[in-house]
Amino acid sequence: MPVHLSHKQCHNVSMILIVGGGAAGFFSAIHAKAIRPDLEVIILEKSERVLEKVRISGGGRCNVTHNCMDAKDLALHYPRGSKALLGPFTRFNAKDTWDWFESRNVPLKIERDGRVFPQSNSSSSIVECLMSCAEDLGVALRLGCGVTRLERSGDGLVSGFTAYLDNGDTLHPERIILATGSARGGYELARGVGHHIVSPIPSL
Question: Could you tell me if 187 and 28 are in contact, meaning their C-beta atoms sit under 8 angstroms apart?
Answer without folding.
Answer: no
